[in-house]
Amino acid sequence: MENKKAVQLSSFTINNEKTAPLTTNQGLKVSEDEFSLKAGLRGPTLMEDFHFREKMTHFDHERIPERVVHARGVGAHGIFQLYDSLVEYTKADFLTDTSKTTPVFVRFSTVQGSRGSSDTVRDVRGFATKFYTDEGNFDLVGNNMPVFFIQDAIKFPDFVHALKPEPHTDIPQGASAHDTFWDFIGQNHESAHMVMWAMSDRAIPRSLRMMEGFGVHTFRLINADGEAHFVKFHWKPLLGVHSLVWDEAQRIAGKNPDFHRQDLYEAIEKGDFPEWQLGLQIIPEKDEFNFDFDILDPTKIWPEEEVPVKIVGKMTLNRNVNNFFAETEQVAFHPGHVSARD
Ligand code: HEM
Q1: Which residues' Cβ are closer than 6 Å to ligand 1?
Q2: Residues 170 and 281 in one domain
Q3: Can 70 be counted among the known catalytic residues?
Q4: Catalytic residue among 70, 77, 193, 260
Q5: Quick check: is 338 in a domain?
Q6: Which contacts (CB < 8 Å, 24+ apart) does range 60-64 have?
Q7: Same domain, 54 and 156
Q8: 244, 149: one domain
Q9: For residue 69, how far is its CA from the centre of ligand 1 (angstroms)?
Q10: pLDDT by residue (tens digit) across 147-204?
Q11: Which residues contact 46 (CB under 8 A, 6 or more apart)?
């Protein structure tokens, strides 16, 4: 199946290997790029060598600011295929037209660690999906745990400051269980549910291909008649959910800090494409207050025996990136990006 996003991107890609001359970034032909202009044989290098300065400036800027959370990530391209139309619930065409195959990009991440931290630390995993729909991008940002640490977003900076390395030692890297973290948890009892998940044997995935994804927040779908339903999004891995135990995770972190990203890359290179089914829990708007918990509270799950997960489609990750910086590092997700069509 031809990936429409790849076709679109290919119009900006030129394969000029062997044919094009070496040029500056502005297209001016140069015979070589290994010797700077000098005053005399041994220097000093001249400021008038604009090509030298261009090459250095370009190199010095080959970074974007590290994400404040979810800095350590890995991504892949793929497709989403809908099984049955959700026209009863939404007018979004990628969720109603089963003939469409929607290109996607997924970025998995840890939360606490910096870009160079280890993959198998005790932490939450991000699971962010960008659907390149015909009506615009739809970003579904999620985690591998179905609840969150806080109820009110204004506490997020306090929570992340507590989670990050401690101010006097800059320790620990990548891991969540330490004094300032426990100080926060001890004073914010709404975090108890999430902590049970984070400290459980289910927390550290065996492979990114074997973990669930959850939108966590309650979203609202609106159909063509203007009727609304509350929904929660779930990704269910077809390989099942498998985890590392603490001792394994710590050993692997030492022996191969890139364990998860390597596993994902190699599986996709081998054609062993990871797959997830998309599931929705759905509550009609009129039933909003028929539960003994607030359905908008991100520290609570919707019990699946009360609100079953309806499986609606499948995502397959089938292509690795060619350029980690351009595709994975610079991808940006924004759950506020939804298409508006009347
Ligand atoms: C008030 C609450 C929150 C705040 C202020 C917040 C803030 C942030 C920030 C600043 C980033 C980095 C963005 C970037 O630099 O590109 C981020 C990334 C992310 N957040 Fe949150 N976040 C919040 C809650 C959540 C929740 C509840 C989830 C799970 C549903 C979540 C999942 C993610 C994921 C998966 C990423 C990584 C996206 C990527 O791969 O680029 N966040 N968040």
Answers
A1: 67-70, 73, 107, 109, 126, 128, 141-143, 148, 153, 156, 216-217, 298, 332-333
A2: yes
A3: yes
A4: 70
A5: no
A6: 62/325, 64/329, 64/330
A7: no
A8: yes
A9: 7
A10: 999 999 999 999 999 999 999 999 999 998 899 999 999 999 999 999 999 999 999 9
A11: 36, 37, 38, 39
337 part of the active site:
no
- State the Cα–Cα distance between residues 134 and 81, nearest whole angstrom: 14
Ligand 1 mutation pick, 105, 141, 188, max ligand atoms within 8 A of CB: 141
**145 and 175 housed in the same domain:** yes
> pTM of whole model > 0.85?
yes
What's 303's domain CATH number?
Answer: 2.40.180.10
Catalytic pick from 3, 143, 144, 188?
A: 143
Residues in Cβ contact with 258 at an 8 Å cutoff, skipping those fewer than 6 apart: 119
The minimum-distance atom of ligand 1 relative to the CA of 214 is: 30
Q: pLDDT, tens digit, for every residue of 218-269?
A: 999 999 999 999 999 999 999 999 999 999 999 999 999 999 999 999 999 9
CA distance 268 to 318: 6
Are 31 and 94 in the same domain? no
Instruction: Tell me whether residue 102 is in a domain.
Output: yes
Which amino acid residue places its CA nearest to atom 19 of ligand 1? 70
Instruction: Give backbone dihedrals phi and psi of 231, rounded to 5 degrees, phi first.
Output: -140, 155
Distance 217 CA to ligand 1 centre (A): 12
Strand partners, 146: none
Ligand 1 centroid distance, CA of 142 (Å): 8
Same domain, 38 and 83: no
Range of the domain at 33: 20-62
Q: Which of 34, 329, 302, 75 is nearest to 208 (CA)?
A: 75
CA of 124 to the centre of ligand 1 (A): 11
Residues 123, 25 share a domain: no
